[in-house]
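fold description:
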Amino acid sequence: MPPTHILETQQFVQASQAGRPAAGCWKLTNGQALSLRPRTRGVLQIAQGQVWLTLRGALADWPGSAADHVLKAGEQLAIAPGQHVVMEAWNPAGHTDAVAFRWDSVAAPATAQPTSLAAREWECGVVQPLRDLVHALGQGGRALGTALVDVTGAGGRFAAGLARFAMHRIAGPLQRKPA
C-alpha cells in the first residue's frame, strides 16, 4: 500500500478514536480494499470512479445480513453506526483510475456541528489534489533518478566498449608489422 494511503487511513482511525467526526477525502487505487467500521452516522460519497462495496450489520430488518452495492461518481450511501463497509475500486472496463471518495460523519445535533462546507471543499478541492501532486512528483523524481543511473551506466559501458574497439583496431595493425 502506498504511504499516502496508509497515512490517510491512519488519519481516519485517529479521528475516530479521538471521538471527532472523520470527514475528508481519500483515494482508493485498483487492487486495494478498505474496511470501514464507523462509530457515528455518516455519508459515503463517490467523487471519481466507481466502487463495489459490501454493507453488513446493524440493519433492523436483516440483522447480520450483507448487501452489495455499486456506487458510481456522484452517488452516495448513508451508513449507520455499527455497520461494516468493505469497499474496493471496481473497474469492469479495465480502467486504472483511482477512486476518490468522501466520508462525512453526521454528528448528533446536540453533540457537535458537522464539518463546514468550506472546510470540506478545501479538503477535497485543494488538500487532496496537493497530496496527489506531491506523491506524483515523488514518483517522477524516483523514476528520473533511476533513468539517470541507467543512462550513466549505459554511457560508461558504451565508452569502455568504444575504447576497446579503437585499441583493437589500432593495436592489431601495429602487431602485424615486422620490426
In short: Helices lie at 3-17, 117-176. Residues 76 and 105 are 13 Å apart (CA to CA).
